[in-house]
Amino acid sequence: MTGDRAGDYRILHEAALRDYLAGVPDIAALLGAEPASWSITEVGDGNLNLVFIVKGDRGGVAVKQALPYVRLVGESWPLPLSRAHYEYLALSRQAQLAPGLVPALLHHNKALALTVMELIEPHIIMRRGLVAGTHYPRFVGDITTFMAQNLFFTSDLALSAAEKKEGIAAFAGNHALCKITEDLIFTDPYRIAEQNRWTAPYLDAVAAELREDMDLHVAVSRLKLKFMASPEALLHGDLHTGSIMVTATETRVIDPEFAFYGPMGFDVGAVIANLLMAFFASAGHERSPGERRAFEGWVLETVETVWNEFARKFLDLWRTDARGDAYPATLFGGGKGGARLEAERQAYMQRLFADTVGFAGAKINRRIFGLAHNIDFELIEDPRRRAVSEARSVGLARTLMVDTAEFPDIASVTAAARELRSWMPEFTAD
Questions:
Q1: What element of type H or E holds 369?
Q2: Which stretches of 235-333 are DSSP H helices?
Q3: Given pLDDT bands bounded at 50, 70 and 90, which one contains residue 23?
Q4: Closest among 91, 92, 260, 74 to 176, alpha carbons compared
Q5: Is the peptide bond before 122 cis (omega within 30 degrees of 0)?
Q6: DSSP type of residue 50
């Protein structure tokens, strides 16, 4: 599975990658035919890495290689290659805990920061499907299983204190990727930062308001502190609809290079935030008024069932597989103890829900005012229509972050989103 035979790091473009894979017997056998006949296509559209699809007459693979810098920015922003190894470690653990929901690992070269994985076909990036208005009936069941299994079984509820600390230590070195999150999500959108951008001039005033909103600054700083100081479980760390590949019948979660031990609500909130953005962006993709209302209804229903199913599955695991050092069973014996522990489980999930709501708001704001945007909004060609969708999203995001206590359940979140769907912001640029 792993190998460092290639020695020092070098960027592998098509010819060099072909030669390298030809020298890995298992991969060469999987691809078949002569290496000269393999098709190699660079398909990476993300912010950080090179991604290739390699196909031979027998089969295909996906190859991902980390670059020593942020691809979106260039060599002026260096980044450790070690992130590729943390991604490999995370995928290995996720494959154990949620089998069938991540790509199979075929080969890893730590020195080259290169991983060869199962080629996921005919799946597409979920975000592109949502832009097109596609429904995904398997998504809720799959993503909630992925989150519940990974978050529960890497937490103190399932692990001994020693096992948990060893897990934290294994990912503690991924701090450069955490720093990206700490800056781009929790800090830069709320201050003047060189790499910030938004739909100008329509959102100029909104961006200025974010920089002056002290209630919001306190809220996002509390979330940042939670992100930095609460190693509750092993997170994917970047669990958005661009890191999920789907068909109508299958789901695969990819790209966990931001993995580290952090607050569970960050992953769950990221999924919900991206669904909410798909909901608000939908109006901008309409060719005629109201044509996507059925899709929008499905998205909000999905938001609700993602939380409800995740919570149900997580609680079921806690009731049946709680072998960790937290909440020792010896302290909760008998009917009285069992009832008290169940009440505590419900209180725990309510705290986790509050974290999820706040993190969802922060994830929305970063996609509208920070460095890395998403195609849900970016593919709305008319900038004013785009700004309308984004302003609605920002309105919800602020409330989720500042007035989190006003959202006792997920239905209150979708109700607020539904109400904002018809709100028409006024822009000073008009």
A1: helix 334-369
A2: 264-282, 293-321
A3: very high
A4: 260
A5: yes
A6: E
The DSSP annotation for 196-256 comes to ---STTTTHHHHHHHHH-HHHHHHHHHHHHHHHH---EEE-S--STTSEEE-SS-EEE---
Bridge partner list, 117: 62, 105
Exposed, middle or buried, 326 (CB in 10 Å: 0-12/13-18/19+)?
Answer: middle
d(CA 112, CA 4): 7
Report the range of poorest mean pLDDT among 64-78, 192-206, 255-269, 276-290. Answer: 64-78
Q: Is 351 exposed, middle or buried (0-12, 13-18, 19+ CB in 10 A)?
A: exposed
- State the pLDDT confidence band at 73, using cuts at 50, 70 and 90: confident
Radius of gyration of the chain from its Cα atoms, rounded to whole angstroms: 22
Percentage helix, strand, coil, to 5, in the chain?
55, 10, 35
- Given a cut of 70, whether residue 4 has pLDDT beyond it is no
- Cis preceding linkage at 201, omega within 30: yes
Please give the Cα distance from 34 to 32 (Å, whole number): 7
**What are all long-range contacts of 188-195, with beta carbons under 8 Å and residues at least 24 apart?**
188/366, 188/370, 188/371, 189/365, 189/366, 189/368, 189/369, 189/370, 190/216, 190/217, 190/220, 190/365, 193/370, 195/73, 195/370, 195/371
Residue at token pair 């229509």:
385
How far apart (Å, rounded) are the C-alpha atoms in residues 376 and 296? 13
Three-state DSSP at 177 gives helix
Angstrom distance (rounded) from CA 82 to CA 427 = 45
pLDDT digits (tens, 9 = 90+) for 323-379: 999 999 999 999 999 999 999 999 999 999 999 999 999 999 999 999 999 999 999
| Measured distance CA(36)–CA(181) in Å, rounded | 41
> Which DSSP category does 409 fall into?
S
Are the beta carbons of 259 and 86 closer than 8 angstroms? yes
